[in-house]
Amino acid sequence: MKDKHGWIRMVEAFLSILLIAIVLNIIINNQNIKTNDIPTGVYNYEIYMIKSVELNDTLRNNIISMSDSDLPSNWENSTFPGNVKDKIQNLTLGSLFCEAQICWTNSSCDFWQEIKSNIYTQRVFISSSYQNYNPKQLKLFCWPK
Q: Which stretch of DSSP H or E encloses residue 120?
């Protein structure tokens, strides 16, 4: 009789450990899913922001009309089109910092600041207007506040 109780207690202990492991696994997986939704939301919003610039003829023409000697032009340069900067700033969510840079299409268009956070980027190629073919790249950099 005593041997049977020992095996039952061992099975109970094994099942308890297994149950705890399953609960911890579920909790850890739920936290990973929640944190992975943040970049997706930021990327989608960045796409919305750069599409707003891309589809606006005035903003497109201001980017295309920039001379090659002004490139690359980051947010802080005087050569960066002010109305493009205003449009992006007006669309930026309160939980994000966003800045942009205009570069040549064959350039990597790297970020010029050091940020100690995840930086999310999107880019769009602004290729031409009716009068001018002078392709440029608009790259948007966003990070959480």
A: strand 120-128
